[in-house]
Specification:
This protein has 2 domains: about 110 residues, Arc Repressor Mutant, subunit A, CATH 1.10.10.10; about 100 residues, no CATH class. About 40% of the residues lie in helices and about 10% in strands. A two-stranded parallel sheet has the order 1-4. The protein has a two-stranded antiparallel ribbon with strand order 2-3. The longest helix is centred in the C-terminal third of the chain and has 19 residues. It is elongated, with a radius of gyration of 24 Å.
């Protein structure tokens, strides 16, 4: 078992923003998403990445090239091996933010992969084995409160991704905040009466019955 105390083992800016359709297509590919996740742990060569995902080196090299061209990966160091410079790749940002920039005249918004859909598919075996930790809540709050709460969630996500790596199991951590069509209670008919209404205790109900 190995423990990596600095995650990842290279300098990494906090965020990188992607906005172009090409960038969104690059990150939407499941294999490229896996490569990005692996490089949150440490910098790695194409050979190491290929061994991790069980795909041919040429295939992984192609996908790494796509991510480099899209600005999400970069060479963070090299090592001389048998007169050849071996490249170690790392991410360009710990968190990838999806922007909404469009080309002039473009009225469509590129759609990125739904992380919650991916998490739902990944979590099926854990659900069947009763090893899934999950919860879902619906709360009526202003949009400003939702944005502020999400910033706090992003801090927790950064804390999770910076945890020292050890053990043999990779855990997924999925979060989402989204508007829904859940029903909303109407306002009380008499707000003053609602504010002064007496609290009914369980023992009051017992006496009434």
């Amino acid at each position: 078992m190995s423990i990596n105390s600095q995650v990842p083992d290279y300098d990494l800016p906090d965020t990188v923003e992607i906005t172009t359709p090409a960038q969104l297509r690059a990150i939407a590919d499941p294999l490229r998403s896996s490569l990005l996740d692996l490089l949150l742990e440490r910098a790695a060569t194409v050979s190491e990445l290929a061994a991790a995902v069980g795909r041919p080196k040429s295939t992984v090299a192609h996908h790494v090239g796509v991510l480099v061209h899209a600005g999400m990966l970069r060479v963070v160091r090299t090592r001389r091996v048998r007169a050849i410079d071996e490249r170690y790749y790392g991410r360009t940002g710990r968190t990838i933010n999806i922007g909404v920039a469009r080309r002039p005249g473009d009225t469509t918004t590129p759609v990125c992969v739904n992380g919650l859909s991916v998490a739902a598919a990944e979590s099926v075996p854990a659900h069947e084995d009763d090893t899934l930790y999950s919860t879902l809540r619906h709360v009526r709050i202003p949009r400003e409160s939702a944005s502020e709460f999400w910033r706090r969630v992003e801090g927790l996500v950064r804390e999770f991704t910076a945890l020292p790596r050890s053990g043999d199991t990779v855990y997924g951590f999925a979060v989402g905040l989204y508007p829904t069509e859940q029903p909303v209670l109407p306002e009380p008919d008499d707000p003053d009466r609602a504010e002064t209404a007496r609290l009914v205790r369980p023992d009051d109900i017992d006496r009434a019955t």
